[in-house]
Amino acid sequence: MGAYILRRLLLVIPTLLGIMIINFTLVQFVPGGPVEQIIAQMEGSGDVFEGIAGGGGDIERQSGGASERYVGARGLPPEFIKELEREFGFDKPPLTRFLNMMGNYLTLDFGESYFRSISVVDLVLEKMPVSISLGLWSTLIAYLVSIPLGIRKAVKDGSTFDTWTSGAIIVAYAIPGFLFAILLLVLFAGGSYWQIFPLRGLTSDNWDSLSLGGKILDYFWHITLPVVASTISAFATLTLLTKNSFLDEIKKHYVMTARAKGLSERRVLYGHVFRNAMLIVIAGFPAVFIGVFFSGSIIIETIFSLDGLGRLGFEAAVARDYPVIFGTLFIFGLMSLVVGILSDLMYVLVDPRIDFESREG
Known about the structure:
The protein is 71% helix and 3% strand. By secondary structure, it is mainly alpha-helical. Strands 1-2 form a two-stranded antiparallel ribbon. Mean pLDDT is 77; it is low at 48-68. It comes from Ruegeria marisrubri. This is Microcin ABC transporter permease.
């Protein structure tokens, strides 16, 4: 197992490097960089993308011998624009900038946000509790609901209960998360019907003045709708995985032997089948959590105005805040690759019979 883990760890380096190269290359062809953003703000043109889409004055600049144009820069002296380039590091060729960036990342220096005057690490640490909170509660609730439901469906396989619940979870899986989130806002956050839950944020304005019990209740009051919205699509996969895992185990010989010995159905189900059937479900917890943590956070955090990592990434992409974009990309990419290794370790931990090294051979 040690050799397998070592190989997986060594693969992290080229995989992460490939991710960074592809994204850095794509960014070079995307218009509206940070210099253009500042120029648009100083010229009072609002959004830089309006100038890119059509019209506006421009001014030439020399960069590495190539003539390029900034749209909407009329009236700004070329010296000022060159100073902006030097400040952001755009006076260097792309390859040099990429190598410098990766060299800094090796020393865990992720730079500072262009527009927030705060280091990327501090920014990530500031926003991470919101996203972790959302992802953790969503994953736990998905497991608490899906495992009993999947077991029940396996026991009642082919029954009316199994058919109707399958239809319900498939419909829930098909509903886009953002659409369900908006529906929850309309129904329960004062949109058109009931004002039961708050419209935005993770805490109330009077959070600091609340008692410990009041803070706990206030937190769950705010987190309810975002968690429900981000969990709805996770039920289908976990429920069907649990059901199929139980069905596979129920058909094995040791279950027939246990029944032949006169054990009760409940004893057979929870004393023998449950332990083996749940291995794959439990071992997949890290992957499920990281999936909820990354995939649903951007839309859910934006809709419910939660100041988390998803919203941070979206705002950084809009503002072309490259240190935040690439820094978070590097951190999240590394986390995803490490979680993949942890998932394999979880499989081995819960079932020592699994041997990844022999499978690779």
